[in-house]
Amino acid sequence: MKNFKRFIREEDGMGTVEIVLIIVVLIALVAVFKKQITSVVNTILKKISKNANAI
Fold first, then answer.
1. What does the pLDDT look like over 26-51, one tens digit per residue?
2. Are 37 and 30 contacting, i.e. CB atoms less than 8 angstroms apart?
3. Region 7-33 average pLDDT
4. DSSP 11
5. Rounded distance, CA 40 to CA 47, Å?
């Protein structure tokens, strides 16, 4: 019984769970806003390409 109580009180695995949850939320946000993110990235890359040709 003491080992079970000690296992419940340990917080070593909490960091892993938190990181996994953050990754899941980020993936969900990317899936929802995929079209907008793609548009912004393409616009930025086009501007960089035009400015690189000017140099």
1. 999 999 999 999 999 999 999 999 88
2. yes
3. 84
4. -
5. 11
* Cα separation, 9 vs 37, whole angstroms: 41
pTM of the model: 0.54
Per-residue model confidence (pLDDT) at position 14: 66
* Paired tokens of 1: 């019984």
What are the domain boundaries of the chain?
13-54
Q: Whole-angstrom Cα distance, residue 46 to residue 55?
A: 15
Q: Which amino acid is at 38?
A: T
| Cβ neighbours of residue 37 closer than 8 Å, sequence gap 6 or more | 30
What does the alpha-carbon distance between residue 55 and residue 4 come to, in Å, rounded to a whole number?
Answer: 67
For tokens 């929802």, what's the residue?
32
Collapse the DSSP code of 6 into the 3-class scheme (helix H, G, I; strand E, B; otherwise coil) and give the result: helix
